[in-house]
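Long-time lurker, first post. I've been practising inverse folding by hand and with some scripts of my own, and I keep getting stuck on stretches where the structure tokens seem ambiguous. Below is the full token string for one chain I'm working on. Before anyone asks, I'm not after the true native sequence, just a reasonable design that respects the backbone. If someone could post their per-position residues I'd love to compare against what I wrote down in my notebook.
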């Protein structure tokens, strides 16, 4: 049995977030101008680049370094661990949560101070608590960057103050942020506008949380030599985007403009999955009259306007009893504008044993003789 399902979408399939389907494609599609030296806008679900500008240029990244700092801490420490502040961790240059020697607080308190107040002292305290020294912690950061496949990033400290050999790119920052936002605790902290931690009232430096609908994080950064750096994340109607600008004097407005363009141009939709693609096939001589068939995995499409998505379903018209749940039942061939994008396997959703009490009709006996049990 071959079923042809065609959908005329109000937006076009740009890429499939499925391993068996093609690699992401970068398209600008009339993105607005911006003031950044380097910039990138990516789809958080797939990592696909929607817009880029000098995204692979090595740059200083200031306090956006703390995205990786927080991710490494969260992967090595429990939130409830207590940290007693040492003298060498206080009075660090730049932004601070004003730690005092001898006071004790939790890792979670320090993470709020790191990500909301951008405390350089919190960064040093967390680094030394986690790895014993700033140098050892920086190596953990570099190991995590390598685990993400990043080759244009090098960390020398946990706070982002200017230091030789400490750099990244807009593209790598977006990848680090994508990994960090998959951590529920990280995502919760960076989406917090203000809170109290360790007896301190902390307010998030990220103005987009208060000024842009759908903003959910993540981190600002600035040094005189690096300029203004902003990494943000916003989500609307199931589409989550990550935007990075480096050396951008108008970063707040540039992020808003890029998001307005992207949310007006793209949206994410479920094209195929266990619920979207499910149908029944009749079972001959079975304990049940039919078996449900489903696509083996969910995937979604990032869409823009006016393309045609075709789903060609290839599956048998009927099956004999003895079906086993999980066995391959067929496939769906996915095409856009007549071009094949990939194939998704269909599998039986349940097992259907033979019902020995049933007597086959003459047609059924003929089919069994012809095709076997």
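-- Answer (accepted) --
I ran through it position by position. Result:
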């Amino acid at each position: 049995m071959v079923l042809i399902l065609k959908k005329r979408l109000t937006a076009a399939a740009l890429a499939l977030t499925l391993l068996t389907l093609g690699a992401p494609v970068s398209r600008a599609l009339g993105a607005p101008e911006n003031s950044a030296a380097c910039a990138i806008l990516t789809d958080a679900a797939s990592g696909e680049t929607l817009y880029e500008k000098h995204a692979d240029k090595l740059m200083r990244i200031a306090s956006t370094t703390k995205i990786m700092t927080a991710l490494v801490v969260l992967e090595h420490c429990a939130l409830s661990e207590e940290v007693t502040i040492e003298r060498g961790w206080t009075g660090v240059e730049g932004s601070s949560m004003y730690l005092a020697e001898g006071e004790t607080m939790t890792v979670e308190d320090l993470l709020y101070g790191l990500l909301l107040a951008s405390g350089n002292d919190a960064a040093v305290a967390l680094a030394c608590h986690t790895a014993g020294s700033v140098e050892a912690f920086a190596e953990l950061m570099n190991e995590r960057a390598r685990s993400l496949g990043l080759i244009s990033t090098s960390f020398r400290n946990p706070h982002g103050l200017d230091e030789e050999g400490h750099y990244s790119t807009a593209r790598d920052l977006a990848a680090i942020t994508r990994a960090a936002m998959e951590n529920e605790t990280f995502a919760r902290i960076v989406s917090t506008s203000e809170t109290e931690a360790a007896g301190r009232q902390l307010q998030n430096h990220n103005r987009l949380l208060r000024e842009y609908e759908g903003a959910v994080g993540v981190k600002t950064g600035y040094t005189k030599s690096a300029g203004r750096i902003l990494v943000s994340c916003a989500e609307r109607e199931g589409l989550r985007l990550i935007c990075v600008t480096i050396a951008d004097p108008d970063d707040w407005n540039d992020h808003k403009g890029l998001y307005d363009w992207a949310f007006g141009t793209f949206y994410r939709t479920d094209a195929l999955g266990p619920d979207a693609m499910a149908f029944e096939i009749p079972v001959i001589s079975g304990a049940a009259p039919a078996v449900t068939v489903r696509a083996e995995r969910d995937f979604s499409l990032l869409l823009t306007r006016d393309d045609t998505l075709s789903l060609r379903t290839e599956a048998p018209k009927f099956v004999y009893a003895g079906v086993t749940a999980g066995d391959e039942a067929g496939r769906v061939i996915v095409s856009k504008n007549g071009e094949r994008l990939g194939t998704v396997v269909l599998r039986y959703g349940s097992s259907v044993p033979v019902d020995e009490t049933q007597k086959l009709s003459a047609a059924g006996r003929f089919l069994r003789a012809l095709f076997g049990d």
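A couple of notes from the structure itself: Residues 1-27 have pLDDT under 50 and may be disordered. The domain at 2-14+271-371 is CATH 2.60.410.10 (Peptidoglycan synthesis regulatory factor (PBP3), Domain 2). Happy to go over any region you disagree with.
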